[in-house]
Amino acid sequence: MYDYLIVGAGLFGAVCARELTDLGKRCLVIEKRNHIAGNVYTEKIEGIHVHRYGAHIFHTNSREVWDYVQRFAEFNRFTNSPVANYRGELYSLPFNMYTFNRMWGVVTPEEAAAKIEEQRKAAGITEPKNLEEQAISLVGTDIYEKLIKGYTQKQWGRPCDQLPAFIIRRLPVRLTFDNNYFNALYQGIPVGGYTKMVGNMLDGIEVRLGEDYLADREGWNRTAEKVIYTGPIDAYFDYCLGNLEYRSVRFENEVLDKPNFQGNAAVNYTDAETPWTRIIEHKWFEFGKDENGNDLPKTVISREYSSEWKPGDEPYYPVNDEKNGTLYTEYRKLAEREEKMVFGGRLGEYKYYDMDQVIAAALGRVRALMG
Ligand code: FAD
Ligand code: UDP
């Protein structure tokens, strides 16, 4: 008999398991996949830690979360600076003085600001009502046409004038020469990969892989006083109110017999015609070196294809629209009646959590459970 059964060995489950164990609770973690770490899982191919479920860059403004993760991994100084490839023209991301110089030849921040203002005025936008208008008012029509329109349409499967403005506000726009994608205070990649970091979190805790809670929930419920469930909330309720929707991504991995394919961890293909949204070259998250500092002779790349999710696909990005928000609220009401259960994490709360946010949420949840 355990105090807690934790369903899912992703970050939410692993942090809960660690904290509860350290508080003297007996925990069992079950995971339906054949590996720990959930979507931050990295697997080693040709000496390279490949991010199997999409590129993960740890970044946070929270000192508490940063200190917490240092207990389980050493972080390198990786800084995310993706490059945009528009039909062979290369631009720096996020939008900053390097991008504006390449696009317009402008040299000073005043010139860049004037160029954006001129294009915004010409488009006649005063109050942006959708992503297209928001993008043009932030960076002008040239950047919208070359770096945003095609990419966004591929990523979300619908045109920019039918998407909410807030999506693009995530991207920084700077009148400085700064290619750091994130504004966060702390950033890096765990040395040795995320799987090792989550393995350290779960050190000394019983984990059973290849076990699906929903296949025998009554049996599993008998093993513990309380259950922390980090799987999809709608699946827990047998989709009785309908499916929550997601955007999905298909990853096409390739090992190349050359040391350097694109010279950067991420290259976004921002035209509409290229079928993939971006290519990740995983070795550059760790500066092209193995753990002993040796150069790696091969490279592994992943092309990412964004797709509409259908039942059976991996759920990745929750769709933040009214329909799904309302449906989630209904599931949430059902969840509140389940006394034995705690629902948490990206799938349990149907919420786009970054890694630092999911760790903070798990720490908070354990505190709440302990009263
Ligand atoms: P998960 O990692 O999904 O873990 C849930 C686990 O529960 C899974 O292992 C699943 O197999 C298991 N499970 C589900 N149902 C059952 C069941 N019935 N029985 C047993 N086990 C079950 N965040 C960042 O901070 N930086 C990034 O750069 C970043 N990039 C991302 C890129 C992509 C493509 C995606 C999709 C997300 C990205 N994120 C990023 C977010 C990050 O992946 C999440 O914050 C984090 O993985 C959430 O952890 P979790 O434990 O809630 O969920
Ligand atoms: N975006 C874009 N061009 C790019 C990168 C991003 O138009 O080269 C847009 C796109 O709409 C995307 C949004 O900016 O959905 C947010 O980008 P971010 O990289 O934060 O997306 P994520 O994949 O992390 O959700």
Task: Give your account of this protein's structure.
With 371 residues, the chain is an alpha/beta fold. It has 2 domains: 2-79 and 187-241 and 319-369, 3-Layer(aba) Sandwich (Rossmann fold), CATH 3.40.50.720; 83-168, no CATH class. The chain has 13 helices and 16 strands. The protein has helices at 11-22, 63-70, 97-104, 109-123, 131-139, 141-156, 166-169, 194-201, 217-221, 233-236, 322-336, 345-348, 355-369, and strands spanning 2-7, 27-31, 42-45, 48-51, 58-60, 83-86, 89-92, 186-188, 206-209, 224-229, 246-256, 266-269, 278-281, 299-308, 317-318, 341-343. The strands form 4 sheets. It has a 7-stranded mixed sheet. Helix 1 packs parallel to helix 13 (355-369), helix 4 (109-123) runs antiparallel to helix 5 and helix 5 packs antiparallel against helix 6. It is globular. The relative contact order is 0.21. Bound molecules: flavin-adenine dinucleotide and uridine-5'-diphosphate. Flavin-adenine dinucleotide (FAD) binds at residues 7-13, 30-33, 38-40, 54-58, 212-214, 230-231, 249, 316, 345-347, 353-356, 358.
Q: Quick one: CATH superfamily of the largest domain?
A: NAD(P)-binding Rossmann-like Domain
CATH topology of the largest domain: Rossmann fold
Q: How many strands appear in the DSSP assignment?
A: 16
Largest sheet: 7 strands, mixed
* Tally of separate helices: 13
What is the string of SSEs from the N terminus onward? EHEEEEHEEHHHHHEHEHEHEEEEEHEHH
What structural class is derived from the secondary structure elements? alpha/beta
How many separate structural domains?
Answer: 2
The fraction of residues in strands falls at 15-25%
The molecules bound to the chains, other than polymers, are:
flavin-adenine dinucleotide, uridine-5'-diphosphate
* CATH C-level label of the largest domain: Alpha Beta
Largest beta sheet: what is the strand line-up?
7-6-12-13-14-11-15
Cα distance, first to last residue?
22 Å
Question: What would you say the CATH architecture of the largest domain is?
Answer: 3-Layer(aba) Sandwich
Would you identify the regions where 5 or more consecutive residues have pLDDT less than 50?
none
Give the helix level as a range of percent: 25-40%
Whole-number mean pLDDT: 96
Shape: globular
